[in-house]
Design a protein that fits this description.
This protein is mainly alpha-helical. It has a single domain (31-217, 233-442), classed as Up-down Bundle (Growth Hormone, Chain: A), CATH 1.20.1250. The chain is built from 20 helices and no strands.
């Protein structure tokens, strides 16, 4: 990653400079502490996505044991998102008043509690109650952990940490799929819930000792005795109606539809339609996550290299996320009609793995037009609207499978609906995301660039 600000994503984000840049003086960068916090946040995301994945990995034994239909299982999966977007929105606004240390601590303890109902009563109401509570606690997780991460890095150093934070999602599935599948096979599906509760509680205790807020937050005095400048604030309506924020939400929307489908239904599809064993299905899910991880770790230095060569954020990070979602949508539409297991699995990997590119990039493009003091709230709004597909996609898929002539045709219909949503969302992102243009337009009259 380039070390010079002139070659960095944030520094080259706009010819007008960052929206709230006010001085050449900046807080000191504590590299060691920043990377320790980064490691904790990556682990946070690993646990986060393991929590999401456990229901899908246990789908077949849960449906068999509780004698529930695909629609009922889809309802359980969708219930996770009942409060997901709302909590992301509310906590986003609270983030300007409550420290990131406290927010992430409370969230993770709640994850632990949310796994407990099914250990007491293994029934549909207990599954729904646990998923609703878990969704409420995980709704702000990605945006608030990114917000916490940004407090430890100056803008020109955020590319790699952002990619690593999102890579925790891929790692979560990569690690949890075989581990949780083994637990489910050897000790029953409830054991996986108990293990996740324990891991979440341990992380929360470690975070309380380590996870203090970093120095790169709102405007503050650079030197003792220097008067702090009031942080720039803009009307939320102006920020949210910029093409960059709307396009960032759109790319997140398309990516989230695919991710929700993957978490809830991909393991079951691999087992029931492609005839895989539980272990082979888990290995396939892990392989898709590994592909996502490679993309995430590649995209950050690639974006930095493009910007170092003078490529604008519109084309480097804006178009990149939209094109990634479009390509994944095309693969989603194609794989149900492809004969032969190897080419179908390749397209499945492209369909469910490529969308990972959009997750860190949509935060980066939105951040380029948002004042620091409002970043947490806007991240919460972006996350709340961008993840709404989770409320619809799992239940809709279950309904389509139950009402179709065959489960295969039901899955095909669900994948085609997903493909259409993804392609439209990706095209909208490509057309709307223009960080440099929107940053100049939002800059207050009379402000100077730095």
């Amino acid at each position: 990653m380039p070390s010079q600000p002139a070659a960095s994503p944030a520094a080259s984000a706009s010819p007008a400079g960052p929206l709230d840049a006010s001085s050449a003086d900046t807080p000191s960068y504590d590299r060691r502490r920043a990377w320790l916090v980064t490691a904790m946040i990556v682990t946070f995301m690993v646990i986060n996505f393991a929590d999401k994945a456990v229901l899908g990995l246990a789908a077949v034994p849960i449906m068999d044991e509780l004698h529930i239909s695909h629609s009922t299982y889809g309802l359980i999966a969708s219930s996770f998102f009942l409060l997901f977007s709302l909590s992301g929105l509310v906590v986003g606004f609270l983030s300007s008043r409550i420290s990131s240390r406290t927010l992430l601590f409370v969230m993770t303890l709640t994850w632990a509690v949310a796994q407990l109902p099914v250990l007491v009563v293994a029934a549909v109401p207990a599954l729904i109650a646990g998923r609703v509570l878990l969704g409420a606690a995980e709704g702000p997780a990605a945006s608030m952990s990114m917000h916490a991460l940004y407090k430890w890095y100056p803008p020109h150093r955020r590319g790699l940490p952002s990619a690593l934070q999102i890579s925790g999602a891929a790692l979560g599935t990569l690690i949890s799929a075989p581990a949780l599948t083994w637990l489910i096979a050897q000790h029953g599906w409830r054991s996986a819930y108990g293990a996740l509760a324990a891991v979440s509680a341990v992380w929360a205790l470690l975070w309380w000792r380590i996870g203090h807020d970093g120095p790169f937050d709102e405007a503050r005095p650079a030197h003792p005795g220097q008067q702090a400048l009031a942080p720039l604030r803009l009307p939320y309506r102006r920020i949210l109606l910029t093409g960059t924020v709307l396009g960032s939400i759109s790319s997140a929307f398309g990516a989230s539809w695919a991710l929700a489908l993957s978490q809830a239904w991909l393991p079951s599809y691999l087992r029931t339609e492609l005839g895989m064993s539980p272990g082979t299905a888990a290995t396939t899910v892990s392989a898709v996550s590994a592909f996502s991880l490679v993309l995430l770790l590649t995209i950050s230095p690639l974006m930095d290299a493009l910007k170092a060569r003078g490529v604008t954020s519109r084309w480097s990070s804006g178009a990149a996320q939209g094109i990634a979602v479009c390509l994944a949508g095309c693969a989603m539409a194609a794989f149900p009609f492809v004969d032969g297991t190897p080419p179908r699995l390749l397209l499945i990997g492209l369909a469910f793995g490529t969308v990972a590119v959009a997750i860190p990039l949509h935060y980066m493009t939105a951040a380029e037009v948002v004042p620091t003091a409002q970043r947490g709230a806007v991240f919460g709004i972006v996350a709340a609207t961008g993840t709404l597909p989770g409320l619809v996609a799992p239940y809709l898929t279950g309904h389509l499978v139950d009402t179709a002539d065959s489960t295969a045709s039901g899955y095909t219909a669900a994948f085609l609906v997903t493909a259409l949503v993804m392609v439209l969302a990706g095209l909208l992102a490509v057309g709307c995301i223009r960080p440099e243009h929107d940053a100049r337009r939002l800059r207050p009259a009379g402000s100077t660039s730095h």
